[in-house]
Specification:
single chain, 715 residues, Ammonium transporter fold, Glucose Permease (Domain IIA), 4 domains, alpha+beta, 18 helices, 22-stranded mixed beta sheet
Length: 715
C-alpha cells in the first residue's frame, strides 16, 4: 500500500510540475490552477494531460532520470505540444496517435537539447523542445496526408468571445491563457490566480511584460485584440518573468530589464509571424526563447555583482532568488580578509594616517603589540627584543599565490629607518581577484615562503621585524593591484575581528579597525564548531509547543547535489541552509514559516562565532521575509525587490543556560530591533546547544516577554 501511495504521489508531482513549470514555478497549487485553465475546453485539456502521461511514461521506459521526470521536465514540453496541436487542429480519437507521436518526440528532443544547451553552453532549455516537436509534426502534416494539418488562426479566433473588461485587462488575461493555447478570459483568470499564488513577483512581472510589449506593438501598428496577438503577447509575459526574476535577482534593474526583454520579444515576434503564420502556425514561444538567450549571454560578459545580477541556479521562485541573494550579501564579508597576525594587536597608524598613509597610499594599516596603556616596549627601548611585536608570527590574510618575496634587509635599531629600502623585507601575495596583499618590515631570515607557493588564510609567512622605513617593530599591511610595492593602495575590509567595547569583547565585521583599537582574530573552538556540524543523515527529534498546540518533529541533516548543507523538517519539508566554516556558523537561507523550530533556530543563531568566550557580543542583520507570514508576506513580496536595504537587526550574545549543568552547554540569544509589523511583534529568540549533541532547545519570545514557541530535544 505504501508503495502504491508513493507511486501515486510521483505521478501527481510529475503532472502538476509539468503545468506549474510553464510559468517557472514548482508550486502544486499553481499547477492545479493552470491545469484547470486548460480544461475550460475539455478536449484540449485531455489532449494536454494525455501528452504529459505519454511523455512521462516514455521517459520512464527509456531510463531517463526519475527525479527529472517527477519534476515535470519532460511533461512540460509534451503538455505544450499536446495543447498546441489541439489548438491548431481540434482533437479526435483519430488524432490520438499524432498527439502521442508529438509527446514521444518531445522527450527525445528535450533530452538532446538539454545535453547541448545545459551541458555545453550552460543555457536553460526552456520550452525549446516544444517548439521543435510542434514544428516537426505540423510541417510534416503539410506533406503527409495521414497527419492532421493546422487549421486557420483566423477561424479559431472567431470562436473567442469578449468580456466587458477594460481593453488592457482583457488582453492581459487572454495572453496569460494563451501560454496554454486557451485564449479566453476564464482561462486567463485561472492562470492569474495560480501565478499570484505561486509568486507575487512573477505576477507583477507578467503585467510589466504584457503592458510594455503590447504598448510597443500597438505603437508599431499591431492589432491588439485578435487571437494571433494573444498568441504573440504571452511571449512578452514569459520573457519578462524569466529575465526579471527567474534568471536574475529581482530588483529595480531587473524590472527594467524585463520591460526591455518584452520589447525585444515583440520585435522577434514580428519577424517570426511573417515566416510562420502563412502556414497556419503561430510563433509559439520562439520570441521569448530568443530574447531570454540573448540577454543571458549578454549579461554574462559583465563583471560579477552588477545589477541585474544573474542567478547561477534558479531557486523555486523569484522570491527565493531574492532571499538567497540578500542572505549572500549579509553573510559574505567584504574582501574575505582576516587579520595578518595572531593575538590582539593595536592599530598604530590607520588609513589617512599622520605619517606615511596619505594620498595614493592612504588605504593602509600599521599594527604593533601594546600594553594596556598603549606602550610598545618593555624595558630598554634601544633593544629590539624589548618590543613584544618583534619576532611574532605574520600570517596570510587570505588565500593566494606568493607573487614576490624580498628577504635579507637588516633590521634597524629602534628609532632609525632605512630610507633606501622603504619596504624592507616583504611578502606580496596575489589573490584570486588579481589584487595583491603586501606585508612589509619583516624580520630578516624569517620568511617561510617563496614565489609561486600557494597559501591558505592564516598560513605562516614570516615574523614581525624592523626592516625598511620602520622606526619600531610593526606590521605594515595594504592591498594594491601590482605585485611590486609602491602601487596605489586599494580600499579593503577585514571579514571579522574582535575589539574591546567598554571592557566587553565585541565582534566587528566588514570594516577596518580604527587607529588606537586593539583587534584580534576570533580564535575558533573545535568543540563549539562540533555543535553546529551534525553528521549527514543524523536525526534530531523535538517536542514543540506554540500557543497551546503541541507536536513532534524531526530535523534531518542533509546535503544537496551542489554540496549545500541543510536541516530539513520531516513535518513540513521546511529547510535551513548553513555554511560549515572554521570560525563562524552562518545560516545562508531559510525556507520555513514563522513559529516553527527552524525559524526559531534561524532567528536565534543566524550567525554564531565559534569561540569559547561567553562574554562575546555581536550584531547581525537578517532578511525580512522569513519574519512574515500569510497575507503580509504576499503583500511585501511585491515591494521587496525595491527595498534592498530592509533588514531586521539583532543584538546577539552567548548566555549560560539555566538548569543545564556543565560547560559543554551554551546558549545563544538574539534581541531584535526593526522587526516588521505583526501580531505579536517578535522580541527575542534563544537557542541552547550541547558541544557534542548540537541543538537542544529553541524558543521565540514576543516584545512583551511572552513565550510564543518552545522546542525541546527528545531522546
Amino acid at each position: 500500500m505504501a508503495e502504491r501511495r508513493a507511486a501515486a504521489r510521483t505521478v501527481l508531482d510529475s503532472v502538476l510540475g509539468s503545468y506549474s513549470g510553464v510559468y517557472f514555478s514548482r508550486s502544486r497549487a499553481a499547477g492545479l490552477f493552470f491545469m484547470a485553465a486548460t480544461f475550460t475546453s475539455p478536449a484540449s485539456g485531455l489532449a494536454g494531460l494525455g501528452s504529459i502521461l505519454v511523455a512521462n511514461g516514455a521517459a520512464f521506459l527509456m531510463g531517463f532520470d526519475r527525479e527529472a521526470i517527477r519534476s515535470g521536465r519532460y511533461g512540460l514540453n509534451a503538455l505544450l505540444v499536446g495543447l498546441g496541436l489541439a489548438y491548431l487542429s481540434p482533437p479526435t480519437f483519430a488524432s490520438a496517435p499524432q498527439l502521442a507521436l508529438g509527446a514521444v518526440l518531445t522527450v527525445v528532443v528535450t533530452t538532446a537539447l538539454q545535453t547541448v544547451l545545459e551541458g555545453v553552453f550552460y543555457l536553460p532549455s526552456l520550452s525549446l523542445g516544444f517548439v521543435f516537436a510542434t514544428l516537426a509534426v505540423d510541417l510534416a502534416a503539410l506533406s503527409l496526408p495521414g497527419l492532421s494539418s493546422p487549421g486557420s488562426l483566423a477561424e479559431t479566433a472567431a470562436a473567442i468571445g469578449s468580456w466587458p473588461l477594460p481593453h488592457a485587462v482583457e488582453g492581459y488575461l487572454k495572453a496569460l491563457g494563451a501560454v496554454f493555447f486557451r485564449i479566453d478570459v476564464r482561462s486567463g483568470l485561472l492562470v492569474a490566480a495560480g501565478l499570484a499564488a505561486a509568486s507575487r513577483i512573477s505576477f507583477v512581472l507578467s503585467a510589466v511584460g504584457y503592458l510594455t510589449g503590447a504598448a510597443f506593438s500597438a505603437s508599431a501598428g499591431a492589432s491588439p485584440g485578435d487571437a494571433g496577438s494573444a498568441l504573440v503577447a504571452f511571449n512578452f509575459i514569459l520573457a519578462a518573468i524569466s529575465l526579471g526574476g527567474v534568471y536574475t535577482v529581482p530588483s529595480l534593474a531587473s524590472y527594467l530589464l524585463a520591460a526591455l526583454a518584452a520589447v525585444v520579444a515583440a520585435v522577434f515576434a514580428g519577424a517570426a509571424r511573417v515566416v510562420m503564420e502563412p502556414y497556419g502556425i503561430p510563433v509559439l514561444s520562439i520570441p521569448f526563447i530568443a530574447a531570454t538567450y540573448l540577454f543571458i549571454l549578454g549579461l554574462r560578459s559583465r563583471p560579477v555583482g552588477l545589477a541585474p545580477e544573474l542567478v547561477r541556479v534558479p531557486a523555486a521562485s523569484p522570491e527565493e532568488n531574492l532571499a538567497l541573494a540578500q542572505s549572500r550579501r549579509l553573510w559574505r564579508a567584504s574582501g574575505g580578509l582576516r587579520l595578518p597576525f595572531l593575538g590582539a594587536w593595536t592599530v598604530t597608524q590607520g588609513t589617512e594616517g599622520a605619517h606615511t598613509h596619505k594620498e595614493r597610499w592612504r588605504h593602509a594599516l600599521d599594527f604593533a603589540l601594546t600594553d594596556e596603556q598603549g606602550g610598545e616596549f618593555q624595558g630598554d627601548p634601544s633593544r629590539l627584543e624589548s618590543y613584544p611585536a618583534y619576532g611574532m608570527p605574520v600570517v596570510a590574510p587570505g588565500a593566494g599565490i606568493v607573487a614576490r618575496v624580498v628577504d635579507g634587509v637588516a633590521d634597524n635599531p629602534p628609532g632609525q629607518m632605512n630610507m633606501e629600502r622603504n619596504w624592507g623585507n616583504y611578502v606580496s601575495l596575489r589573490h584570486i581577484d588579481g589584487s595583491h596583499s603586501l606585508l612589509a618590515h619583516l624580520k630578516p631570515g624569517s620568511i617561510k615562503v617563496k614565489a609561486g607557493d600557494v597559501v591558505v588564510p592564516g598560513a605562516a609567512l614570516g615574523r614581525c621585524g624592523n626592516s625598511g622605513r620602520s622606526p619600531q617593530p610593526h606590521i605594515h599591511y595594504h592591498l594594491q593591484r601590482e605585485p611590486e610595492p609602491g602601487g596605489e593602495t586599494l580600499p579593503f575590509a577585514f571579514a571579522r575581528f574582535v575589539v574591546e567595547d567598554g571592557g566587553v569583547p565585541r565582534l566587528s565585521e566588514r570594516r577596518l579597525p580604527r587607529e588606537g583599537e586593539r583587534a584580534a582574530h576570533p580564535e575558533p573552538s573545535a568543540r563549539r564548531r562540533a555543535a553546529f556540524r551534525p553528521p549527514i543523515g543524523s536525526e534530531l527529534s523535538f517536542a514543540t509547543e506554540s500557543v497551546g498546540r503541541r507536536w513532534r518533529e524531526k530535523l534531518v541533516a542533509e546535503a544537496d547535489l551542489d554540496g549545500a548543507l541543510f536541516l530539513r523538517s520531516t513535518r513540513d519539508g521546511s529547510r535551513l541552509y548553513y555554511l560549515d566554516q572554521e570560525d563562524i556558523f552562518t545560516v545562508t537561507h531559510l525556507v520555513a514559516r514563522p513559529r516553527t523550530i527552524l525559524f526559531a533556530f534561524f532567528a536565534a543563531a543566524s550567525r554564531v562565532p565559534l569561540v569559547a568566550d561567553n562574554r562575546l557580543r555581536w550584531n547581525s542583520e537578517l532578511p525580512v521575509r522569513p519574519f512574515l507570514g500569510g497575507l503580509t508576506r504576499a503583500a511585501v513580496d511585491c515591494i521587496l525587490p525595491f527595498l534592498p536595504g530592509w533588514r531586521v537587526r539583532a543584538e546577539q550574545s552567548f548566555f549560560v543556560p539555566p538548569g543545564r549543568a556543565g560547560a559543554e552547554f551554551f546558549g545563544v540569544e538574539a534581541r531584535f530591533t526593526g522587526t516588521p509589523p505583526g501580531r505579536p511583534r517578535l522580541g527575542a529568540a534563544r537557542a541552547v546547544f550541547h558541544e557534542e549533541m548540537g541543538l537542544m532547545e529553541a524558543s521565540l519570545i514576543d516584545a512583551a516577554g511572552r513565550t510564543l514557541l518552545t522546542a525541546r530535544r527528545q531522546g
